[in-house]
Amino acid sequence: MNGPRDWEAHEPRRAGVIRRVLPTALAFVVILSGLAYLRGDLRELIGTAPGSPHSAAATHRLYETGPVDGRCETLPEEIDADIRATLRTLTGCLDRMWAATLAQADLAYSPPAEVRLVATPEEAACGIEDYDWAGIYCPDGRVVNVLVEDRRAFPMMFTLAHEYAHHVQEISGIAGRRGPEVFDEAWSRRLELQADCMAAATLRIVEPRRLRNLSRLAGQDSGTQSQEPAYRQSHGSGANSARWMRRGQQAGTVEACNTWAAPAEQVS
Ligand SMILES: [Zn+2]
Predict the structure, then answer these.
(1) What is the distance between the alpha carbons of residues 89 and 100, in angstroms, rounded to a whole number?
(2) Which residues cross the membrane (predicted)?
């Protein structure tokens, strides 16, 4: 857990072990030790290992939904004229897109509690100690934060769509950890690359040309962020980011964004 993140980890609360009777506690320890000893093999067998096509994250019913309806007719033609207005309009479109997609899987959609368009990281609901992010999703309060600092709207539109994807991962349960799943950098990369892909799926009709340009830039790996080792560790290589963005743009489905079933080299 060394790399910078644009979402905050939160640990589920457990009931106090102290109150459990001794045999139960011992059995618990033995099972955990066994899992730790067998690690990958057992996790693969019971399907909880990220990258296992049998894992709950890889077989989620959201993958059975059709292409995201990526139209956003209310978006202004000049997206750079009033960037905050553009992002506010896109927010409404993303709510509509994800509500319709989750409904196909009989999942209820609730919008983020708040979408903060901030001028400095200090104004965000979380992630204040991190030095460098364009956007961040705070799962505890379900707040999307986007840093508005550029004169071009599209990179911020992509950031907004990416943080929205984290919100969908959170409320659908895809981002939930299960069993002995290890919360490590590999887990983080699958989460981040999936969010890139899902963001591309939502923006593929809104801004297809700018989206292609952005994925081309990511693929060149020349961005300041993707060159940083810590960023690559938690978010994946520029080449893989571009790969998943292209998949989302071409197919437009969450199924195309199933990083949890992908081989390790595609989420490196
Ligand atoms: Zn992210």
Answers:
(1) 17
(2) 21-38
Domain-located, residue 206:
yes
Retrieve residue 252's tokens.
């437009």
Mean pLDDT per 10-residue run, the chain (268 residues)? Answer: 57 51 60 54 56 78 96 96 97 98 97 97 86 89 94 96 97 77 83 97 97 94 65 91 98 97 93
Residue 152 lies in a domain: yes
Q: Cβ contacts of residue 161 below 8 Å, gap of 6+?
A: 90, 94, 198, 199, 200, 202, 203
| Cα 121 to Cα 132: distance, rounded to the nearest angstrom | 8
- State how many domains the chain has: 1
Q: Please tell me the distance between residue 195's alpha carbon and the centre of ligand 1 in angstroms.
A: 6
| Residues across the chain | 268
Task: Report CA(188)–ligand 1 centroid distance (Å).
Answer: 9
Parent domain of 196: 60-267
Q: Are the beta carbons of 187 and 236 closer than 8 angstroms?
A: no
Are 82 and 111 contacting, i.e. CB atoms less than 8 angstroms apart? no
In a domain, 43, yes or no: no
* Residue 146 dihedral angles phi and psi, to the nearest 5°: -130, 130
Give residue 166 CA to ligand 1 midpoint distance, Å.
Answer: 7
